[in-house]
Amino acid sequence: MFRTMVGKTIIAGMVPFFWAMADEIQKADNSLSLAEGESWVGGTAPGSGDVAVWDGEIAQPGGWNCGLGASVAWGGLRVTNAVSMLTVTNSGATLSLGGDGINLAAATNEYFCRLYAPVNVLGDQVWRVSSPTVLYLWGPVSGAGALTAGTDVQKGHVVFYDAVDLPKGVTVAGNAQMRTNAVVSGPVTVASGGEIGRASCRGRV
Predict the structure, then answer these.
(1) Which of 205, 170, 182 lies closest to 88, judged by CA?
(2) How many whole angstroms separate alpha carbon 68 and alpha carbon 61?
(3) Disulfide: which of 82, 116, 151, 200 matches 138 by Cβ 3.0-4.6 Å?
(4) What is the largest CA-CA distance in the chain?
């Protein structure tokens, strides 16, 4: 199984402290539903402590358009070395994401990411997107966590087309752009240098 986990123990006085990064599980080169173990390198699907990773060295274009098949909870989602547009179709299931959020900062080749499945923001998180990559949310986004769209150093776009219900709010980071045609329930904060506006229909299948 392709997993990466980094950890270390630090002794502060007599109290040990363990710190660990989430496991990373690579998408295999197939179009099986993402809830299936066989959809992933090593045969085990990501769980709530794992980051689901798409990398073009392993997953060729056929592995970049998939449905969930069943509701899943991942620690996060990351894209590197994109060889196609990543599309998660709406199969009636929900994608729940933990504190690692969505990371498209290292996505290459200017491909977009389209999530049609509903997204549940389980905890506070950042969705990192670097220009010219765009993250499209075609399904509803809700949850108990606070969401930060973009970072102060990455000029990416996050676009919402369905309802956003985040009681802890959405923050648009400096240099980031958020576009929406939907009703946003919860506070919205736009940092200096950030932008918010209406979405176009670019990215629709």
Answers:
(1) 205
(2) 17
(3) 116
(4) 58
* Tokens, residue 153: 């150093």
Residues 6+ positions from 95 with CB-CB distance below 8 Å: 68, 71, 72, 74, 77, 88, 115, 117, 118, 119, 120
What distance in Å separates the CA atoms of residue 8 and residue 181, rounded to the nearest whole number? 45
Give the model confidence (pLDDT) of 1-40 as tens digits: 444 443 333 333 434 433 346 799 999 999 999 999 999 9
Neighbours of 150 (CB within 10 A): 30
Cα-flanking dihedrals φ and ψ of residue 47, to 5°?
-120, -165
Tokens of 135: 């993250």
Residue 25: which residues within 8 A CB-CB, separation 6 or more?
1, 2, 3, 40, 41, 42, 44, 45, 46, 50, 51, 52, 53
Where do the DSSP E strands lie in 40-163?
Answer: 50-55, 65-67, 72-80, 86-89, 95-104, 113-115, 119-121, 125-129, 134-137, 141-143, 147-149, 157-160
- Write out the DSSP string of 20-46: EPPEEEEBPSS---TTSGGGBTTS---
Q: Which two tokens stand for residue 183?
A: 């009703």
Burial class (CB in 10 A: 0-12, 13-18, 19+), 188: middle
Q: Which residues contact 92 (CB under 8 A, 6 or more apart)?
A: none
CA 65 vs. chain centroid, Å, equals 15
